[in-house]
Specification:
510 residues, mainly alpha
């Protein structure tokens, strides 16, 4: 059967359908569309729900589906011959699950094509469909200008966060009046002085790994603006939580008290606050760089940074690198442990930070990977996820984890620099051409003015010439009229003059 099904004709397919009591509607459709054995093996999930099978009743469709799935299961070798089945790829897809499921590639559904979820058999590889939908994005424009906007957004948010941290430090509750709150972890784990520095060292290692991934990733600008958008949003939310409620200092080892601002000639109170905010902003809020703050407990910014770096490294590296993913998760968990062991935050601060960061990451990527869902509810998406709606407008699927080697990166950088120089040169040439065009237009305008002036002068000369001619004609008529009057007078001396030829002087006088 495995070797013969490829050679089945339409007649043999119809005999199989009749033998299995398949509906006559299905038989007629297969007869009309000339369905043979190869066609049955190449059926995919969406074919059962699209034309010409879209009007089948549920029972008819289900029986036909079960028959085709059974044929595909029993004829996997034939499907391999046709190039419809890759057993190695199928086995890796069933076993290669990312650590704790943070890679969202397996969470996306082809909603645009409306693939039914009841046809996806994930647990048993033998029952999986031969159809592997391609969820990769069809257009992945770098859109560097959007990445630049995201960078400006995260810079603005981090500056606002630094200012808010200065404000909450100035209103931190008095430790004598408000002792540390009861905490399940802090009350049972002794204080470790060097733990907070270890947390920041762990975060620096995660940042180094993330920069390496970002450098070699082909779609670095897309994932970079996603990182900026999520980081800015989480830290903006942190600003509100810090301002709304001021928690008491979590440990007596922390020397926290409101700052006093004695009068000074050089700076005002807000001027010194902004200077302190700049120190926090330039030091990235890290204690190893000399930044010490109090009152910014709800929720932990260090936990946000650790979690974001871990999730982005896990998402944008191949799932085959499970050792790297385990390492990043261990570093994330140990970093959180170091924060609590240093008694720098309450346990609720760390828990809330991890939950909010992970949920926002999952929501953002789930929506961006399923553009059909976002487009079907675009109005609500624009309201609740404005950054997602803006930054992901040109991404219509999953961003694949494709990488570039150093040679390719250098060649792309060289081409980019050459293109930039060409664009700058063209813009300068265009600018010079524009200046020359303006000068030519000015000269042309001057020439037109001169030409119009010359034409006016010529017209005035022509008019003057016409007036002169008219005057001469009038004078000639007057002279002729005067001579005629003299000729009519019989006693006129002029008649006498006509009897003899006039002298030259007389002609000249006339």
């Amino acid at each position: 059967m495995e070797s013969d099904i490829i050679n089945w004709t339409n007649k043999e397919v119809l005999e199989l359908l009749q033998k299995d009591n398949i509906s006559s509607c299905v038989i007629d459709i297969c007869r009309y569309n000339d369905i043979d054995g190869k066609c049955l093996l190449s059926f995919v999930d969406r074919d059962f729900y699209e034309c010409p099978f879209e009007k089948l009743r549920l029972g008819e469709r289900k029986r036909f589906i079960l028959l085709v799935k059974k044929l595909q299961k029993n004829n996997r070798m034939a499907m391999c011959e046709l190039g419809l089945y890759d057993e190695q790829l199928l086995a890796s897809a069933s076993t290669n699950i990312n650590f704790l499921g943070t890679n969202l590639s397996h969470l996306s559904y082809n909603l645009r094509n409306k693939v039914p979820t009841d046809l996806v058999y994930e647990r048993n590889p033998d029952c999986m469909s031969s159809f592997t939908p391609d969820f990769k994005a069809s257009k992945l424009k770098p859109e560097v200008w959007k990445t630049a906007i995201a960078l400006g957004y995260v810079f603005l948010v981090t500056w606002v966060t630094a200012v808010v941290m200065v404000i909450v430090h100035d209103k931190v509750p008095d430790m004598k009046k408000y002792p540390p709150l009861p905490d399940l972890f802090l009350d049972n784990v002794p204080h470790i002085p060097w733990a907070f520095d270890m947390c920041e060292i762990t975060g620096s290692l995660l940042m180094a790994i993330w920069l390496v991934v970002l450098f070699f990733h082909k779609h670095r600008f897309i994932i970079l603006r996603r990182f900026f958008a999520l980081a800015g949003t989480v830290f903006l939310l942190r600003c509100f939580t810090m301002l709304i409620t001021s928690l008491s200092v979590p440990g007596s080892h922390l020397k926290c008290e409101p700052r006093s601002y004695p009068p000074a000639d050089d700076l005002t109170v807000w001027g010194r606050r902004l200077r302190q905010a700049y120190d926090i902003w330039s030091g990235a809020g890290m204690s190893v760089r000399g930044v010490r703050t109090c009152g910014d407990y709800m929720f932990s910014g260090h936990t946000v940074a650790l979690t974001l770096l871990n999730f982005f490294i896990t998402e944008y590296t191949s799932r085959n690198l499970y050792l790297l993913h385990i390492l990043t998760w261990v570093m994330n968990m140990f970093g959180i442990f170091f924060i609590l062991a240093a008694h720098e935050h309450y346990s609720i601060d760390v828990f809330i930070a991890f939950y909010i960061t992970s949920r926002l990451f999952l929501y953002y990527h789930t929506l961006s990977n399923n553009q059909a869902l976002m487009q079907n509810d675009s109005s609500r998406t624009r309201i609740w996820f404005p950054l997602l709606s803006f930054f992901e407008s040109e991404v219509d699927g999953i961003v694949p984890n494709e990488y570039e080697g150093p040679v390719t990166i250098m060649n792309n950088l060289r081409h980019w620099c050459v293109q930039l120089l060409v664009d700058v040169k063209q813009s300068s040439v265009a600018k010079i051409a524009g200046i020359k065009l303006q000068e030519g237009a000015a000269m042309g305008e001057y020439s037109v003015v001169k030409l119009v002036g010359g034409i006016k002068r010529n017209l005035s000369l022509v008019e003057e010439y016409k007036n002169t001619q008219q005057g001469l004609v009038t004078l000639d008529k007057n002279i002729q009229a005067g001579l005629l009057d003299d000729s009519l007078d019989p006693h006129s001396d002029s008649l006498k003059d006509f009897k003899s030829p006039p002298s030259p002087n007389y002609k000249k006088s006339i």
